[in-house]
UniProtKB/TrEMBL annotation:
The keyword Repressor does not apply. It is an enzyme of class 2 (transferase). It comes from Scophthalmus maximus (Turbot). Transmembrane segments: none annotated. One of its GO terms (biological process) is double-strand break repair via nonhomologous end joining. This is DNA nucleotidylexotransferase.
Amino acid sequence: PEGATPTPVATVSQYACQRRTSTENYNKIFTDAFEVLAESYELSEFEGQCLAFRKAASVLKCLPGVVRCLGDIRGLPCLGEHTKSIMEDILQCGRSFEVEKILSDERYQTLKLFTSVFGVGPKTAEKWYRAGLRSFSDILTEPSIHLNRMQQTGFLHYKDISRAVSKAEARALGNIIDEAVHAITPDAVLALTGGFRRGKEFGHDVDFLVTTPELGREKSLLPDIIDRLKQDGILLYCDYQASTFDISKLPSLRFEAMDLFAKCFLILRLKGSKVEGGLNSAAEDHRGWRAVRVDLVSPPMDRYAYALLGWTGSRQFERDLRRFARFERQMRLDNHILYDKTKNEFLAATTEKDIFDHLGLEYIEPWQRNA
Ligand code: 8DG
Ligand code: MN
Ligand code: MN
């Protein structure tokens, strides 16, 4: 209201790694709108604008309540003129016309549909769109289109894979992986990572980190797990990438988001996943199983803390950890190492807390990393 004294807002950092962001998002109406804009810019390869909207959404996600007027966001970082005008529309009309225009755009709709298939990235989607294809049946009946194995699997299990994975299903998969790794090596170390480690109720996949205390022994771990899952008859798809990580070449490593550890992107057959309350889809009740995406990464034990921190996410949290290290500490952080450019040395860490300490950051619990 007119003349109201502005409420003092505790300073919110521009870095997600200096904010605590639980899974509770009071400003979904705004962050959903920003995500549409970010996706639209991403599909048009406007990286800067895409990132700007992702950053803005991330800032709103850490707020302890609903934004009711533009005054509520005064002083917050990462909210520019464009984001504010979108918020103003939503505050005034309950919706944003710019977002609605994107949502009804044929190109956006088609690219979103195509990239929702496992194995189809923005480039392939764009190529199909330019060829005049608009639907799955267009793609599947077009004789000139060759689908790779990943895309064939994506179409085959489309319904299952696009349905969210529940916490109960993640737990059931955890038990399956746990049994497999410990049958292979009793001293195996298994950790849940990704969104479920951050306390999310649903996810698009389930992410795990597996390793063993014996250095070098982890090299055969994923192939052995994959063999077991195959023998158990639950392996529907497997894309295994062997490690290209070489510690002796560390100083020349490029610092980037992708890591060099052994990993595999799987689709597993999960039996009897009953949702409490019995809200199973008819198809699942009929079959008694569903297909689920599972990611496994297997770093050597001395890289455990960095890998765990890197694979826990969220993506925005990871991005800002790296940005903070670089611009505020003259350090380089990635999934393998933390390097201090001033001291010219690699910093050792056995826990995530060690890494936060090196960076001079307060420890942020996994469930506070939903930036
Ligand atoms: P969701 O599955 O519930 O949708 O969310 P999520 O668990 O946060 O996302 P994710 O796509 O499964 O990624 C989890 C973390 O793993 C994320 O912080 C990024 C990180 N990650 C890497 N390397 C790779 C990689 O090569 N592929 C993928 N997909 N994720 C990677 O550090
Ligand atoms: Mn995940
Ligand atoms: Mn994943």
